[in-house]
Amino acid sequence: MTRLVRWTALAAASALLAAGCSGGSSEDDKSGLSWGRCKATADGPAPSSDWQCATVQVPLDWSKPDGETIGLGLIRAKARGDDRLGSLLFNFGGPGASGVSMMPSYAPTVSSLRERYDLVSWDPRGVGASEGVRCRGDKEIQAAESVDVTPDTPAEEKAYFEDAADFGKGCQKDAGKLMAHVSTADSARDMDRIREVLGDDRLNYFGISYGTELGGTYAHLFPKKVGRLTLDAVVDPTADTVGHAQNQARGFQRALNGYLRSTGQDPEDGTRKIAALLQRIDARPLETGAPGRKLTQTLAVTGIILPLYSKDSWPTLTSALKAAEAGDGSELLVLADRYNERDPSGRYGTTTHSQRVISCLDDRQRPTPAETKKLLPRFERISPVFGRFLGWDTGGWCHDWPVPGQHDTPEVSAPDAAPVLVVGNTGDPATPYEGALKMAGELGKGVGVLLTWRGEGHGAYGSGSDCVDSAVDAYLLDGSVPKNGKVCS
Q: Of 13-17, 220-224, 244-248, where does mean pLDDT reach its minimum?
């Protein structure tokens, strides 16, 4: 079971390096951290010598700042130019994305920003090099692929919720007392500690997808410490668990409609055809050629979702759907495996594990099985393809979770903060455009500055719009705030 609020690069990053620290601290570093070369892991080689890694200690429990600490993994590349502004901290979403592993691969996209900023990212608590959580082993994860996440019978429903509860128990066993201290608010406080040790008076930050919720939370908690914050692919801060799932159902259905139009199909007819295909797969999973693995309905939906994150991947979706209609599930399985971070040897990444422990600590709203079933007709009206998947997810994601959730919606109001640039893409499938409108409003008048891109895909910066890229660069590099409501098409 995979929640969908993940930035597209996570899928592409499944085979990327994961950097840690090795010996050899950097000379004359004013941060007080012991920066050293980033080491290779079993997943790939170390990044170039441009990149340095370190560990910063933060309180396990921020209500006890002098108590037990945990280490957070950091990575940075120093600014190239002489006119340095400070550090620019990145979060790539999820929640659960490893900034330590993703920052080097994303650096070419933000090369212009490196002229004046040190590029910095980190693994948030509960992720990767920062006390990363693993709730299940690889064999257990693969076995759970047979669980129907859109159950049609009492037996399937029972198996679905039992599997959900079992996952939570596995997380608790691995995370221990960390389980209650991986919230977005905890990570926002970690960000301020990182700002402090890096020597910056104010936080300069670039948050993508879930990283926008994290950035908004930081602005609320530390409004006077806000420097230049950019939020791209914006999560709706006013949506609760059910509202967020409905937003995603709308977003992915819109993206599917756009895809279908691009192939010359009527969106309603094309949607009905895909929904019928998924029903057939639910009744009889497709052969894939992979030993012991068939394409289930859940894997098929996941495989359809991945290429909707980027318009460049739409031809891949066409090929995979054509093969599935002919009874071959291999191409959709490959796409699903990429999304689920499964490599050819059968090893799975743990992004979704971290994602779940963070989001379930954040979210207080947890529909019961009975409440979930009542929601399904509404979800199916929004999207015949994705509705049931996301509807059932609202009940199963945090079912019988070992720790209580903290809030219904995050608080992001920051009336005393400097202007925050909020970038929304009208064709975003995972974080629909309405989220940017809501975030800009919730930050407060004069704080949230909305920049709109009429495009496709998850995220706007670096997606091919010179208008967006130049506006963001001018804001981050020169402090030039665009006019609120500026539209790039």
A: 13-17
